[in-house]
Amino acid sequence: MLYIGLALYSFAAAVVVPCLSTLVSDYGSASQKGTVMGILRSLGCLARALGPVVSSSVYWIAGAQACFLLTSAAFVIPLALLSKASRLKEE
């Protein structure tokens, strides 16, 4: 089970994170690219630090079902925010 988790983590680190960086780089003007990428990296670090603490606390306090529902709902928030963000148009 540990090796399966490590394989999935390495896949995410090698493929998903660079693809996400590429998608996020389309947002903001040329002078804002560093800020946008910095925010992405900062939020990623914050999620990796707080995610296990929050989800394990919810798991032990409210149970497995509440933990999975809460984390599933948390994935909807970035989707809604990203759909409202304005994409930089090439002119």
From TrEMBL:
Keyword set includes Cell membrane: no
Q: Name one GO molecular function term.
A: transmembrane transporter activity
Lipid bilayer topology = Multi-pass membrane protein
- Any idea where this protein resides? Membrane
Q: Which InterPro entries match?
A: MFS_dom, MFS_trans_sf
The UniProt record lists the Major facilitator superfamily (MFS) profile domain at 1-91
Q: Which Gene3D superfamilies match?
A: MFS general substrate transporter like domains (1.20.1250.20)
* Segments traversing the membrane: 6-24, 60-82
- Which Gene Ontology cellular-component terms appear in the entry? membrane
Protein origin, superkingdom? Eukaryota
Please state what the protein is called: Major facilitator superfamily (MFS) profile domain-containing protein
